[in-house]
Design a protein that fits this description.
3 helices
Length: 162
């Protein structure tokens, strides 16, 4: 009888854990929407980016960064920002964070508007369709890293040969 009671207690405990995990998946969503407009890394010729600073609020309070070209080595970092996004059928009027322009080998240009939401999920827009995805801070970090790579490459190419 004690074994039966112990098994039942273990079962109740496991069901509580399972219920909590199920609730987390239901709240966070367990699937991502495929974004057909995004090309694969191999089909990209250039990515240009701009980051707009806002000293009063938002995830990036630094100076605005004028359009710069993303290094080929960073293309996957950029694409990863949009790899798990959910369609947003009711977008808010968010503050603009910046934009990306992806040019493909077929000369198509895809503009991605980046928005600051100050929420758990960031937001972006492609061709009039809005999505929620990577956090604002993650987007800013990746763009700042890419900008630093751009500056380092630019500075290295301006150094005189010895």
């Amino acid at each position: 009888m004690r074994q039966l009671i112990a098994m039942f207690d273990d079962w109740k405990h496991n069901m509580r854990i399972f219920s909590c995990l199920l609730l987390v998946f239901l709240i966070n969503g367990c699937t991502c929407d495929k974004i057909d407009e995004l090309p694969s890394q191999e089909n990209i010729t250039t990515i240009r980016a701009t980051l707009w600073g806002n000293p009063e609020s938002g995830p990036y309070s630094g100076p605005s960064i004028k359009e710069f070209e993303i290094s080929v080595h960073d293309y996957q970092k950029i694409l990863d920002l949009f790899s798990c996004a959910k369609l947003d059928r009711n977008p808010a009027k968010w503050q603009v964070l910046g934009y990306l322009i992806i040019k493909t080998i077929s000369s198509t240009e895809i503009e991605i508007g980046l928005f600051s939401t100050s929420e758990r999920k960031g937001a972006f827009e492609i061709d009039g369709t809005y999505y929620r995805g990577s956090k604002d801070a993650e987007i800013v970090k990746v763009l700042l890293d890419c900008h630093n790579t751009y500056l380092n490459t630019k500075n290295a190419s301006n150094q005189p040969m010895q």
